[in-house]
Write a structure and sequence with these properties.
315 residues, Serine Threonine Protein Phosphatase 5, Tetratricopeptide repeat, Alpha-Beta Plaits
Length: 315
Amino acid sequence: MRQELFDGSVLREALRGAEKYIEAHIDELNLLNVFPVPDGDTGINMFVTLQAANKAVAAVNTQSAAVVTAAAARGALLGASGNSGVILSQILRGIAKGMEAKERFSCMHFAEALGVAAEMARRAVMNPVEGTILTVSSEASEMATRMAKRGASLRQAMSAIVRQSKKSVEKTPELMPLLKEAGVVDAGAKGLLYVFQGMRDHMSERVTKHKAKTRTLAPQAKSTSQSYGYDLQFLLQGTDMPLDKIRSKIETMGESVIVVGDSQLIRVHVHTPDPDAVLKYVRKVGEITNLVSENMDDQVREFREKHSKKDHSDS
């Protein structure tokens, strides 16, 4: 069966839809955020990343699927914020990789691109954990492939992807005890579900006004003596930079490490007790830009205090 072909305009609309859907649910995703650090910023980080991707796409004057997705991937990498944002940038990078040299694409091409995206997202994380955005990405790509092999249309495939993603999100507490203890689903996983929902609605020309839904989340019963360190993020620019070597070194200096990019542009995200040591090392191999260093202990305390006050005022 010959499948219908689409150009990059469909992907433009899909990415706009994803951004709008995430924007409408920022507060909800922030409140769900307990892993890897309960600092309430998953919704913001995913929105900022998609916003950067769409800004880059808007600057491209072509309807080539390859060019549109490549612009989105680079924009997302440059603008990625937080752990979830960097992983999302790698999902977009994988889609771009799958769309290379394609002016137009079919449902099967899209499914294959989602498969590449799932692999790239998983490779970006030092210790992949199930019950997160990675699980949703993998299971969504598997569903897309099944649908494409059945000869489904792109709209049918996107609807199936959303249905599968909902199931994947619902089971995240069973895969991660921390989520079950907190009584929530994974924020990044639900964020990716919302990305797919926004894409589906715009691809299907069923754009609706989404009203933000918020959810009250009580402060987590973690020891106040627990130290999270610093959330360090930056871009590293240079020539012939050894990506794998840099990633291996930074993995010894902190947690939640994501080091992605190529020999000329690298996005780094790490939770570390000693940001100065990380910066001292990377300055030997490239130039640092877009540097953000945030004290996660302060972030977590402020987040809990804010929602503790809200819970008391609501009671």
